[in-house]
Amino acid sequence: MPKVSDDIANCVFGAFNALPGKCKPRKRDDGTREWVPLSGIVLSTPSQNTKSEKPTRSLTCVAVATGMKCLPHSKLPRATGNVLHDWHAEILAIRAFNRFLLDECAALVASGLRSSAYVRWREDADGMNQAFQPFQIKEDVEIHMYCSEAPCGDASMELVMDSQNDATPWATPPLNNTSADPSANPDVRSALRGRGYFSELGVVRLKPSRSDSVPALSKSCSDKLALKQFTSLLSSTVSLLVLPSSAYLSTFTIPASQHNATAVTRCFGSKGRLSVISPSHSESWEGGYRFRPFLIRITSREFIHSRRSSPNPIPCNVTAVATPHFSSTLIGGVLQGRKQLDPRGATKVSRRSTWRAALEVAVSAGVPLVIEALKAESFKDMKSGESLNQRKEVKDDVRRLALRGWEENSGDENWSLEGEN
């Protein structure tokens, strides 16, 4: 009998296989093959099969993505919400999931119905005159994630060490306080590059991992996924419309070849680096936020374009992202065929497109407080608004206590939707 983890992997593979060939790795003229990480978000819902004696659940992949690069920090001021900062597959799949939720909410409003297969109006928010977060993911929906590679950063350090010809740890860097106050937290080390200093485990790491790459401040996928266990999968923008309490991952599936029990327990588990946040501390948060660790599942399935698919494969520079509502091919964090800083290259999962879509949903749903929060003068003002204070408190607590050294990847906030059609 197939394992649930294999079913989840197969579901993501099916969504990837349905994508056009132009966004997939290829075999080059010299015979070498390309590889790329794959990630997907799968929703599980009660099956409508009345003939089954036992309750069964249906799986649907609602977000799929490939990719392995990020934007250099020096380019952030020119991104103006149009260029993705991070298009590693895991992060892009989460962005696609957020866009999927917005599109589902928009369809729900347009239909006049109270619920769809995955999303419903909140019953305690009837009237909508004063309510934030008028929507929520339905209670019987479970959220699963599949990744073809171990997430970069802490969850893959043992795998990285094992792959080295010389696994001797590099020299440990000096302590470096990243706080604006030099006297604060003197023992906090700044975030490390992804593959540096193997002896340092359980720490925040940066992309790209190679020491000779152009510097960026995007945190590793391990760190971002760890934080999502506290903030939910929702972005700040989408959390103004959708209640976070039902938007947490239930399971996280990776291939057996990418699973190191020590690493994933240290990185994601309640007894690892996140254990410094006590249950009582988590329960003090408001707004539906809690520490909700996901269950790690192992699959025997391997992605056909994984790093292990052929000897010495070459990284693919083409990125794919899709939901049931759209699909796009990207290069350099923008739509393929567009220059990186061309506004017309913004994808549907970019900061600008997501903000615009959220505002359109709020207006069509007629939720005054959410409209007011989303009609900020700049993206920075929207994210720093009082309506997101509960979410900011959670993020600040986690970064201060468990993910120390997390530095904001700032520089792409001072732009607005004003003047757009």
From TrEMBL:
GO molecular function, one term: RNA binding
InterPro entries given in the database record: A_deamin, Tad1
A to I editase domain segment(s): 63-271
SMART domains from the UniProt entry: ADEAMc
Lineage top rank: taxon: Eukaryota
PROSITE patterns in alphabetical order: A_DEAMIN_EDITASE
BP GO terms, sorted: tRNA wobble adenosine to inosine editing
UniProt xrefs under PANTHER family: TRNA-SPECIFIC ADENOSINE DEAMINASE 1
Name of this protein: A to I editase domain-containing protein
Gene source species: Aulographum hederae CBS 113979
